[in-house]
Design a protein that fits this description.
Radius of gyration: 32 Å
Number of strands: 12
Number of domains: 4
Helix content: 55-70%
Structural class: alpha/beta
Strand content: 5-15%
């Protein structure tokens, strides 16, 4: 293995400048001069960008600027002992010992482990004292090589033995804390924070175990250790991987550097949180959030990122639409369609109270209340869509610009399409502004003032000045076209919507069709039922796949595994509730037969709904919102027809399209005793 440090990479007792940038540039030049980096400027830019995210100064007059860079060809360690100290952001003042760690983008695990081990050695006072006393560059190299060759210190994940019991603590077990440390690069701060926390806890008689989520590998904490812990410390600058494992535990959350600077305080705070019933706790994560987090950790190309942003926006929009749509439907049920005409609901609420009822009595008043609440909730459709698309791209700083751009789209009549465009513009702008390198004193204002302000001006300004008008015109033309559809053209639209709803079962195509339907729902009325027709068609077609799979498992059990038959039982309720994802367990194991069969039935259901005038004033709920369905008998007939066709199609495909023996899968395993 190439030696990480050589005398040519060591600088002793020189003045390298007044700022971290000066020092890093000189050391980057040293690395390039030895042939370990292809260019100085690229390496400097990556290292200084890392420095801007989190200062690398640590207590004891030490700084560890570090980065991964495409400019680095071989891992390198450059060291400087400064005659003129430079402030790298440590609380105890400027640093005179500088270790610059340069790792390639694809550094191997062995090199990363050595670099991480060196970072841990730098918190040992005897090692740093020897570095300050070294007379030559070769002495420094020997000291570093010796530190790297020593037997590794006990891993921070190992339990810290409790101190001997005293007369006052003989009966008391030590408090137990678990911790996670992680920094963006995962080379230095991750491991230094872990060792500092362990050492502080040991002095206090606390059993503390750490999971280091660094670049040189990580060993997850034992679930039993987590379960027994009294509190959790997250000393991290990035998201904690597997955060749901700690759900419900009292938590202290801080930047990784605080784990190095103030480990004793963090342990004390964790102990206090363990005794406080009102302390902040790690939130519980559902399966969807876990899946989303895992997906985000993978490398994504631009198409995947765009899809994830759009799906995020739609998923956050749905609660506004679902609750609002159901309340509007309830308003129609209690007060009739007239409640939506003009300002009738507003007039009833302004002139009447629960103790002074309008003509028509309590039902009319409660209908007006339900309709108005639902109408206000639906009003958030476009802003919420845009806001959470921007959030998916730029995190929290994107929410305000996204909501603002969505509100502008609604104001200009650009509707759902305008919300998509506004959210993307706001998210991209907020993300780009967030990458600006600004002075340290300005960083605190960036996410709460600067980014929302500038991104709102950019996205909403473009909507007002350039995009809003054309998108509004397109939306109006599309609505007019849909309103005028009848006969064969309406049936064709029903077939297309049915195919889309069954193509990917809750994926992007399904969500586009659903979002298209709910976006126009509030525009429906007794005189213009086209939006309700589309909603009824989308809901009915989306119910077909899970119901069809449930029916197929009943009609021919031998074609399905035991697990699939169990999933089929749950799919009855999921399908009846309009949850298309109920068919995913079947499609995941056999997509080439389940998806085409589902699409055939969905297309039939969509065509029947459009042809017979099935409507829905509710955006969700399936059979459970029967009161909001127009032409309920045909709604049921269309779903049953599609369900039967899809069930027979999947059985036929499984039986004849491809021979797939499943008898062995369904038979229970034989256990020898």
């Amino acid at each position: 293995m190439t030696q990480l440090i050589t005398p040519q990479l060591v600088t002793l007792d020189q003045n390298l400048g007044d700022s971290p940038a000066d020092v890093i540039r000189v050391l980057a030049g040293k690395v390039a001069a030895t042939g370990r980096a292809s260019e100085v400027e690229g390496l400097f830019a990556d290292a200084f960008a890392r420095e801007q995210k989190t200062a690398t100064g640590v207590p004891g007059g030490i700084a560890i600027p570090h980065c991964r860079s495409a400019a680095v060809q071989e891992p390198a360690l450059a060291m400087a002992r400064l005659s003129h100290k430079v402030d790298f952001g440590a609380k105890d003042g400027p640093a005179d010992l500088i270790f610059f760690i340069a790792a390639p983008d694809g550094a191997d695990q062995e090199h990363l482990k050595l670099l991480s081990k060196l970072a841990r050695s730098l918190i040992k006072k005897d090692f740093t004292a020897a570095l300050r006393a070294a007379a030559t560059e070769q002495d420094i190299v020997d000291l570093v090589d010796g530190a790297l060759a020593d037997k590794p210190a006990a891993a921070p994940a190992a339990a810290v033995p409790a101190p001997a019991a005293t007369s006052t603590t003989a009966a008391a077990a030590p408090k137990r804390i678990v911790a996670v440390t992680a920094c963006p690069t995962g080379i230095a701060h991750t491991y230094m924070a872990a060792d500092s926390l362990v050492a502080a806890a040991q002095e206090m008689g606390v059993d503390l175990q750490v999971e280091t989520q660094g670049s040189s590998g990580a060993k997850p904490l034992d679930p039993a250790v987590i379960a027994a812990a009294d509190a959790v410390i997250f000393a991290v600058d990035v998201d904690v991987r597997g955060k749901e494992r700690f759900a419900g535990k009292p938590v202290i959350n801080a930047p990784v550097k605080r784990g190095i600077d103030e480990p004793t305080k963090m342990v004390q705070e964790a102990l206090a949180a363990a005794e406080d019933p009102h302390a902040r706790r790690v939130p519980h994560f559902g399966a969807e959030e876990q899946a989303d987090r895992a997906e985000e950790e993978k490398g994504e190309h631009i198409g995947q990122k765009l899809k994830r942003a759009l799906l995020t926006g739609v998923s956050y929009m749905i609660p506004f639409v679902a609750g609002g749509g159901l309340l509007m439907a309830l308003g129609f049920l209690l007060a009739g369609y007239d409640i939506a005409l003009g300002t009738r609901a507003n007039d009833i609420l302004a002139q009447n109270t629960l103790f002074d009822l309008p003509d028509g009595g309590l039902a009319i008043y409660l209908g007006a209340v339900a309709f108005k609440i639902g109408n206000l909730s639906i009003g958030f459709l476009v802003p919420a869509l845009a806001g959470y698309i921007a959030y998916a791209i730029a995190d929290r700083p994107g929410i305000a610009p996204g909501f603002t751009a969505g509100a502008v789209a609604g104001f200009m009549g650009a509707g759902f399409l305008g919300g998509l465009a506004g959210g993307l513009l706001a998210g991209v702008a907020a993300h780009w502004i967030g990458t600006w390198q600004v002075p340290r004193w300005l960083r605190g204002l960036m996410p709460v003032v600067i980014i929302p302000l500038l991104a709102s001006i950019f996205a909403s300004g473009l909507m007002f000045l350039v995009l809003g008008g054309p998108i509004a015109g397109l939306t109006l033309a599309l609505n007019n076209w849909l309103t005028g559809m009848s006969g064969a053209s309406a049936v064709l639209l029903g077939i297309i919507l049915g195919l889309m709803m069954c193509f990917d079962l809750g994926g992007p195509v399904n969500k586009v069709a659903y979002a298209f339907a709910v976006a126009g729902l509030s525009a429906g009325s007794a005189d213009n039922q086209a939006p309700w027709l589309i909603m009824g068609t989308v809901m009915a077609a989306g119910m077909v796949p899970p119901l069809a799979m449930a029916l197929a498992t009943v009609l021919n059990k031998k074609l399905f595994t035991l697990n699939e038959r169990e999933n089929g039982k749950a799919a009855w309720l999921l399908g009846a509730s309009f949850i298309s994802e109920g068919a995913i367990p079947f499609a995941a194991t056999d997509p080439l037969r389940v998806i085409p069969a589902s699409m055939v039935g969905g297309a039939l259901t969509g065509a029947l709904c459009m042809a017979t005038g099935v409507t829905s004033q509710a955006p969700h709920g399936g059979f459970f919102v029967f009161f909001a369905i127009g032409n309920l008998p045909m709604f049921i007939i269309a779903i049953v027809a599609g369900m039967v066709v899809s069930a027979l199609a999947v059985i036929a495909l499984k039986r004849w399209a491809v021979k797939k023996p499943v008898e062995a899968e369904t038979a229970p395993a034989t256990v020898s005793v």
